[in-house]
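WARN no homologs supplied; continuing
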Amino acid sequence: MIRETVVAGRFYEANAGQLKSQIEGCLQHRLGAAASIPNVGGTLAGIIVPHAGYVFSGPVATHAFARLQREIPPPDTVVLLGPKHTRYGESFSVSAASAWKTPLGQMEVDSGLRDKVLASDSLFRPDNDAHTFEHSIEVQLPFLQYFMSPAPRILPIAIHYAPFASICKIADGLRKVIAGETAKKIIFLVSSDFSHDTPREQAYKLDREVIDLILSNDAEGVYKLITEEDRSVCGVMPICTMLQIFADASLKATLLKYATSMDIMRHELGVGYAAIIFEK
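OK structure emitted
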């Protein structure tokens, strides 16, 4: 089956031409990456990008995608780890679709990699229900198509709230699968917004505490801070999964850009967004 678009026309433009213009507008925005294209510091292993409507989080997201665009050779497959904002589907849902559609065309799912991931741990389940109404992964795909030509294959995985031991378990399975894929280049893309419904100054403070733990590759520290203090970082499980995958990889994490929705449009309470890369 083909996974159809769900939030086109809401989170981003539904018309292909208008969508390309919208992404270009994000890139050229005063908070976008056009004026400060990220340096290449090593081989890209993963990125963290926001998933709100493009008008709000798009400029921050361009910093990570602009770095991805400069990766040589480009990745063959991007494994997308996104949170579940709905109750539908499996807790560790690996997309069972053959492709995902966007206004810019279809992106093929890496079915061979999917089979190996599903075989790596029983917690992973083939499932489309978790993705049916979920936006966190979908909103990343037009950016991948715009910044990469040809577009890579993808493997979307939605992750629900879980004990840290379960996160470690699936991370171990993913790490072993990727380590065995010596014939292809694979990177991870984690989809996450940061603080929600927070005044601007407080968002900068609270999110910096989380970002510092991410930059030090402290998966358990991130997990404890978010869960024990009930902070609203919606992609905490995907973030911790990727950090745990990278635990022994000696990667350098770099914050490319942080801003809030309140930096885009004046309002009292808003959402924090970060673009972070991991290089080896």
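The CA atoms of residues 161 and 237 lie 6 Å apart.
OK
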